Amino acid sequence: MCGIVGYIGKREAAPLLLNGLKRLEYRGYDSAGIAVLNGEMSVLKQKGSVGNLEQLLSVSGTVMLGVTAGIAHTRWATHGDPSDRNAHPHMNVTGDIALIHNGIIENYSVLKQELSGQGYTFESDTDSEVLVHLIDRIWKGDSSLDLESAVRMALRHVEGAYGICVISSREPDRIVVARKGSPLVIGIGDGEFFIASDAAPIVEHTNKVVYLSDGEMAVVTRDHYTVKTIENVEREKLITELDFSLEKIEKGGFEHFMLKEIFEQPEVMQDVMRGRVRLNEGRVQLGGIEDYLDRLKQAKRIVICACGTSWHAGLIGEYLIEEFARIPVEVDYASEFRYRNPIVGREDVVIVISQSGETADTLAALRLAKEKGALVMGICNVVGSTIARETLCGMYTHAGPEVGVASTKAFTAQVIVLSMLALALSKGRTISHDEIALSLRELSKVPEKVSRILDLNDQIRAIAETLKDARNVLYLGRGYNFPVALEGALKLKEISYIHAEGYPAAEMKHGPIALIDEDMPVIFIATRDSTYTKVLSNIEEVRSRKGRVIAIANEGDQEISRLADHVIYIPQASGPVTPLLTVIPLQLLAYHVATLRGCNVDRPRNLAKSVTVE
Length: 614
Hints:
- By secondary structure, the protein is of the alpha/beta class.
- The protein folds into three domains: 2-242, 4-Layer Sandwich (Glutamine Phosphoribosylpyrophosphate, subunit 1, domain 1); 250-444, Rossmann fold (3-Layer(aba) Sandwich), CATH 3.40.50.10490; 448-602, Rossmann fold.
- The strands form five sheets. The protein has an eight-stranded antiparallel sheet with strand order 3-2-4-1-10-9-11-15, with helices on one face. It has a seven-stranded antiparallel sheet with strand order 5-6-7-8-12-13-14.
- A hairpin with a 1-residue loop joins strand 2 (31-38) and strand 3 (40-47).
- Helix 17 (481-496) packs parallel to helix 20.
- The N and C termini lie close together (11 Å).
């Protein structure tokens, strides 16, 4: 994995491909490469940034000038270290086929051994190179085949996940693409076509796209595209209009995408609720699940499956659904769900949550739940994504494109969606109309309160100065704020590379207290709720061991200032909406610590935005 771009049309390909790779840099990568067809194949690739590739192209890429078809790739290492030789595209021995690949070929070692026995040599350590040699062997073994047929036959030997683009100087006016488990989208222009692993490189050229589904491939020429299954059955595909603009994926004056996306959250929260929260009527209208609402309410149990930040949102969803709708909820790591033989049946509902809608582990959980007969509902951000297509019902978060690798606005959007879902499930069952109306009024006030917290940005940056040299940080919260503690710790780990852990505050004395000393900062979420006095006792325990305390507390709380070294005050709110407020200072804190440490905030090392491999 990580980023794919392809172009065929009337314009010069190389600048378009390079610009497309830049649009995909947010996904995380370690090397980049480009291949174009100009009578024969021309390939340039290099370890490092797209900027490095661009510089290489300016020095030695004259053969790419004027060429109107090509493919390009950014790689995130899975097999083989980041290096020039492992960068994509990969070529066959005679240099007339080039391939780029996202995903993992699980049986590559068997295929590689077989091909080596037939005289094929390998220039890289990747699994991807195996596939280009396999295509070559099949095509050379039968002169009646074309590139499309050779790719199709090769894919029948492959186990694993892939999104691929293949070009050949033998058929210079076409690009063959295919997907299984790794997303691909085709952008439809005027006499030109664009191919990418997501819509970011396409949106500045066209808003009309076709999303390939698993098990589909396409042949794209300068004036036409055809979509078929791997079994060679032609498919009619719906053309989708992208619902975001180029401006949405620009920084808009902010130093980093992550900071921009943190500050977008008040607007995003309003977008998530727009048309769904009916304050005058005291109800929520959730069109994406309306036809299945009765079945959702009758669920014997709800299982939420997600990974990373989405899993933390799912934990908050567990609290919300159990409190309001009184339906038992379990939250599973999607990566573990399919491997533990879960007990799931027709009386259960499985909710899968993913920002991209393409997370490989979450898709695997989705498919297993469907096999077992459960009703599967999706919560995702990307229209047309695989999760959106494969779930029976669901809700989009409408957060807009999230470019920063560390998720921020997607998290709060997911929590609002789960809040609305919990209230919809409770209607007519567990709480009164007036209680629902009151909860919706509280939810509707959140965007304005978040704006007030964002005004504390300079204060939070000053507190970050005291944390930037820490080696370990502990985050503690209770109730609704325990998952926020986990999320705050994850954000710090992801972008500043400081080790951090989140715990329920009461669990501190069952182990983590042994770590407390003058070098251990402890961040408490200490809002005024039913556990407030207990959290104060935990703070006292840390202070008595010389730990440094940073507290997130409610405005007007003077007692907390006596106990904490630093306090970030946030507006008062009811318990169920508190996570939407308490997470904001933790996002800003992680951001400022990372920038003060000189870290690459938008592209943290070793991380990818959309994890499309297991």
